[in-house]
Amino acid sequence: RPTLAFDNVVFGYEPERTILHGLSFEVPAGASYAIVGPSGAGKSTIARLLYRFYDPQAGRILIDGQDIAVVTQESLRAAIGIVPQDSVLFNDTIGYNIGYGRDGATREEIEQAARSAAIGGFIASLPQGFDTEVGERGLKLSGGEKQRVAIARTLVKNPPILLLDEATSALDSRTEQDILATLRRISRGRTSLSIAHRLSTIADADRILVLENGRLAEQGHHTELLRRD
Ligand code: ADP
Ligand code: ADP
Questions:
Q1: What is this structure's pTM?
Q2: Highest taxon of the source (predicted)?
């Protein structure tokens, strides 16, 4: 289980406008950290830098002490599994949609990932089971079920690091609680960073980093932050 660190990261999309002002933090191996903050604070920018859609103008992003700028795109994607807010599911079978997470995944691995995402039983209860279609022409999945397929797609890669990018923001509050429980379970044994705009969705993170205007305004455990509110 690797550590994940931002070391004095400076970044702006445009030369005259800095978005992250020397951001530093470290997620210890196996810990679950969360980043919250108002809209425009720079949360999505952190996710984009982690995935190397952009590179910082200064500073480094480190996985186990190694600068992600020098690792291959392939090993970076193997290291970091993303659960986004809205995953694009193909109009194909659930199995195909999960297997898409990793080339050459076997049916056994896909079923294992489905079980870990708590959608295995659901699949078994369907008439055609695993080969049931997801898209418009086939089965209609609920928002929560779609999110479980997305989680399984990430899990089939067995990534040591998880980036949960507003992973429950599109769900109603009951479904959100269900998915959060699954996310908590799959985060165990991995290093995870959860990005959210609501403090309530990340209540049991080991540490919460509050981002404001591209700087860490404060950090602490959920109960500490609530006391200061
Ligand atoms: P958050 O995810 O916390 O809402 P973002 O990281 O999306 O914040 O945005 C941080 C700042 O960067 C905002 O001021 C936003 O307008 C700006 N920004 C985001 N994406 C781009 C882009 N592609 N080009 C220029 N500015 C951007
Ligand atoms: P891969 O299949 O490349 O191993 P993923 O399945 O996590 O990785 O994501 C597939 C592609 O979708 C990524 O290469 C990336 O371009 C895009 N993507 C995934 N999650 C996000 C996200 N949270 N924000 C922006 N783009 C994303």
A1: 0.86
A2: Bacteria
